Amino acid sequence: MTQRHVHRKLALPAITAIALLVSQSASSGTAKGHLPLTTVADVPLTGGTTRWDYASLDRSTHRLYLAHLGDSVVTVFDTHNRKVVADVANVSDVHGVLFVPQLHRLYASATGTDEVVAIDPDTLKITARVPAGNYPDGMAYAPEVHKLYVSDEHGRTDTVIDVRTNKRVATIPLGGEVGNTQYDSVSRHIFANVQTREQLVEIDPTTDQVISRIDLPGAEGNHGLYIDPSTRLAFIACEDNDKLIVLDLATRRILSSFDVAKDPDVLAFDSALGWLYVAGESGEVSVFRVQGHSVSLLGTSMLGPNAHVVAVDETTHQAYFPLKSVAGRPQLRITKPSQATP
């Protein structure tokens, strides 16, 4: 995610603003000051007290890949033994990381050099570097066509990379600043947030053409994105007005909107438990329960400084939050659902 300074809209007249606030609170059911989580451990991480970004988990090898943006390294963490295995250097201003099980390969977006870096997870060596526009960020993989889609945030496009040749094969104009990009395994299409147009854009990977644009009324800075194929729901985090929008991809209709952690960024979903995590730049985290198309807020509270990144293990139900600085050093906060949680 890019931290951006935005100009908020002018305040409504007092009576209208109060009425709107009451209405929003009632509809969202925000439960401030509570999270149904227990901290399992705080584990020291390597490097400086600089910014972290996306995370990606390979459950088969118990490895968590963390983008240590401020240090320009990909940190490899062993979730079984709870220790750092290695730091992969020379990934300049690394933002996105994505482990692709089908390829047994790790990708990282190096925003400092505007490229995507391919990494062999066995040797932890960089095997390829591919140009990826202007400020590459989030990534998604479409397995049927062997293509990686990269959010070119400032370039207002999605960059398409053929993973068989590690070559850029297309650049798709999206008409606005691009947030996160995700793959939907049901439609086999790619979806990307166009955060300056308040739209979710649908791309057909067979043609690399935009085939639809879904307007998102009420969205401001729709950046974070997670798609759950089992429910056909898209969860969209709006960083400029602290909202989570729940979109039904089958009908293209917004089902609900919630107040969430301030400055929401990364989303993670425990499909086995039906829990959605929304991590915020503010250090707040929101947790939701998803049962079919029913989405309810379990709680929102401060989790840790700058806790805007989260990954979750669906087998252990443990969630991982890299924190910029705790007691003067970077830490990985590991949580699990509280025993009292139904």
TrEMBL record:
Entry-linked InterPro entries: Haem_d1_sf (IPR011048), Host-pathogen_enzymatic-act (IPR051200), WD40/YVTN_repeat-like_dom_sf (IPR015943)
Keywords: Signal
Top-rank taxon: Bacteria
Signal peptide range in chain numbering: 1-28
Entry keyword Signal: yes
Protein name as it appears in the record: 40-residue YVTN family beta-propeller repeat-containing protein
Organism, as annotated: Dyella flagellata
